[in-house]
Write a structure and sequence with these properties.
This protein is mostly helical. The protein is 74% helix and 0% strand.
């Protein structure tokens, strides 16, 4: 089996590499790597990937928030 496609492919945007990093970070926190994930039942894979995607979304929002905050602090009035 191969790794789930929703982590290995997709639209490439400026944050896609960071998103993949956060997804892998989440999976690792659950004791799962891509090889183990591919061996899991499909429903379990989908649940883990859903959770990992939510985690990555929250982390990306945090990064964006910090960047906006820094910009607001350093922007001339």
């Amino acid at each position: 089996m191969h790794a789930p496609e929703n982590i290995s492919h997709g639209a490439e945007g400026p944050q896609s590499a960071l998103e993949r990093k956060y997804i892998l970070e989440y999976l690792q926190s659950k004791g799962v790597d891509l090889e183990n994930l591919a061996l899991m039942p499909k429903e379990e894979q989908q649940n883990l990937m859903r959770e990992a995607s939510q985690y990555a979304s929250l982390k990306l929002a945090e990064v964006e928030s910090r960047a906006k905050f820094r910009h607001d602090i350093h922007a001339p009035s």
